[in-house]
Amino acid sequence: MSARSSGWGMIIFGANIFMQFLPMPKMSPEQQELFAAFGKIGWLMPLVGLAEILGGILVLFPKTRALGALVIFPIILGILAHHVHHDPEGIGAGVVFAIVELWMLMENRKKYTPLF
Protein backbone atom coordinates (compact mmCIF):
# COMPACT_ATOMS: atom_id res chain seq x y z
CA MET A 1 0.00 0.00 0.00
CA SER A 2 1.35 3.40 -0.93
CA ALA A 3 0.69 6.80 0.60
CA ARG A 4 -1.73 7.54 -2.22
CA SER A 5 -3.62 4.31 -1.58
CA SER A 6 -3.79 5.21 2.09
CA GLY A 7 -5.10 8.67 1.17
CA TRP A 8 -7.80 7.23 -1.08
CA GLY A 9 -8.72 4.72 1.64
CA MET A 10 -9.16 7.49 4.18
CA ILE A 11 -11.27 9.50 1.71
CA ILE A 12 -13.51 6.50 0.98
CA PHE A 13 -13.96 5.53 4.64
CA GLY A 14 -14.52 9.16 5.62
CA ALA A 15 -17.15 9.59 2.90
CA ASN A 16 -18.79 6.37 4.07
CA ILE A 17 -19.49 8.02 7.43
CA PHE A 18 -21.73 10.53 5.63
CA MET A 19 -23.24 8.34 2.87
CA GLN A 20 -23.12 4.76 4.27
CA PHE A 21 -22.36 3.09 0.92
CA LEU A 22 -20.20 0.30 2.41
CA PRO A 23 -21.89 -2.54 4.31
CA MET A 24 -21.29 -2.62 8.05
CA PRO A 25 -19.38 -5.68 9.25
CA LYS A 26 -21.04 -8.05 11.66
CA MET A 27 -20.69 -6.61 15.17
CA SER A 28 -21.00 -8.05 18.64
CA PRO A 29 -23.66 -6.58 20.95
CA GLU A 30 -20.87 -4.72 22.78
CA GLN A 31 -19.70 -3.12 19.50
CA GLN A 32 -23.28 -2.23 18.54
CA GLU A 33 -23.70 -0.50 21.90
CA LEU A 34 -20.43 1.38 21.40
CA PHE A 35 -21.38 2.61 17.92
CA ALA A 36 -24.83 3.61 19.18
CA ALA A 37 -23.10 5.71 21.85
CA PHE A 38 -20.92 7.33 19.18
CA GLY A 39 -24.09 8.10 17.22
CA LYS A 40 -25.67 9.83 20.23
CA ILE A 41 -22.79 12.31 20.21
CA GLY A 42 -24.11 14.00 17.09
CA TRP A 43 -20.96 15.89 16.15
CA LEU A 44 -18.38 13.13 16.75
CA MET A 45 -18.69 10.91 13.68
CA PRO A 46 -19.10 13.81 11.21
CA LEU A 47 -15.91 15.31 12.68
CA VAL A 48 -14.06 12.01 12.28
CA GLY A 49 -15.36 11.66 8.71
CA LEU A 50 -14.32 15.19 7.83
CA ALA A 51 -10.85 14.65 9.33
CA GLU A 52 -10.47 11.40 7.36
CA ILE A 53 -11.48 13.09 4.11
CA LEU A 54 -9.28 16.15 4.71
CA GLY A 55 -6.30 14.05 5.81
CA GLY A 56 -6.77 11.70 2.85
CA ILE A 57 -6.83 14.59 0.37
CA LEU A 58 -3.70 16.10 1.92
CA VAL A 59 -1.91 12.73 1.75
CA LEU A 60 -2.62 12.42 -1.98
CA PHE A 61 -0.26 15.30 -2.80
CA PRO A 62 3.44 15.04 -1.89
CA LYS A 63 3.63 18.74 -1.00
CA THR A 64 0.94 18.40 1.71
CA ARG A 65 1.59 14.77 2.72
CA ALA A 66 3.37 15.72 5.98
CA LEU A 67 0.34 17.71 7.16
CA GLY A 68 -2.04 14.95 6.03
CA ALA A 69 -0.07 12.39 8.04
CA LEU A 70 -0.50 14.55 11.15
CA VAL A 71 -4.24 14.93 10.55
CA ILE A 72 -4.71 11.18 10.08
CA PHE A 73 -2.47 10.12 12.99
CA PRO A 74 -5.08 10.33 15.81
CA ILE A 75 -7.64 8.55 13.61
CA ILE A 76 -5.24 5.67 12.98
CA LEU A 77 -4.54 5.45 16.73
CA GLY A 78 -8.30 5.31 17.38
CA ILE A 79 -8.75 2.57 14.78
CA LEU A 80 -5.98 0.48 16.34
CA ALA A 81 -7.24 1.06 19.89
CA HIS A 82 -10.76 0.06 18.89
CA HIS A 83 -9.60 -3.16 17.26
CA VAL A 84 -7.26 -4.09 20.11
CA HIS A 85 -10.04 -3.71 22.68
CA HIS A 86 -13.20 -4.67 20.78
CA ASP A 87 -12.37 -6.53 17.55
CA PRO A 88 -8.88 -8.11 17.47
CA GLU A 89 -9.79 -10.28 14.46
CA GLY A 90 -10.44 -7.21 12.30
CA ILE A 91 -7.19 -5.40 13.05
CA GLY A 92 -5.47 -6.30 9.75
CA ALA A 93 -6.48 -3.25 7.72
CA GLY A 94 -5.75 -0.97 10.66
CA VAL A 95 -2.23 -2.36 10.95
CA VAL A 96 -1.63 -1.79 7.24
CA PHE A 97 -2.85 1.82 7.52
CA ALA A 98 -0.66 2.28 10.63
CA ILE A 99 2.44 0.99 8.83
CA VAL A 100 1.86 3.39 5.94
CA GLU A 101 1.21 6.18 8.47
CA LEU A 102 4.49 5.48 10.28
CA TRP A 103 6.32 5.42 6.95
CA MET A 104 4.82 8.82 6.02
CA LEU A 105 5.75 10.27 9.43
CA MET A 106 9.31 8.95 9.16
CA GLU A 107 9.65 10.16 5.57
CA ASN A 108 8.64 13.68 6.65
CA ARG A 109 10.33 13.77 10.06
CA LYS A 110 12.57 16.71 9.12
CA LYS A 111 9.48 18.79 8.42
CA TYR A 112 8.25 18.13 11.98
CA THR A 113 11.42 19.20 13.83
CA PRO A 114 10.27 22.84 14.19
CA LEU A 115 7.21 21.55 16.08
CA PHE A 116 9.47 20.14 18.77
CA-atom Rg in angstroms: 15 Å
Helical proportion, percent range: over 70%
Indicate the mean pLDDT: 93
Number of helices: 6
Shape label: globular
Q: Summarize the helix and strand pattern as letters.
A: HHHHHH
Total discrete domains: 1
The chain-level structural class is mainly alpha
Provide a brief overview of the structure.
With 116 residues, this protein is mainly alpha-helical.
Q: What's the helix and strand layout?
A:
Blueprint: H1 3-19, H2 29-40, H3 44-60, H4 65-86, H5 92-107, H6 109-112
Helix pairs in contact: 1-3, 3-4, 4-5
Verbal overview:
With 116 residues, this protein is an all-alpha fold. It has one domain. It is 76% helix and 0% strand. It has 6 helices and no strands. The chain has helices at residues 3-19, 29-40, 44-60, 65-86, 92-107, 109-112. Helix 1 packs antiparallel against helix 3 (44-60). The two termini are 29 Å apart. The mean pLDDT is 93.
Which descriptors would you attach to this protein?
116 residues, mainly alpha
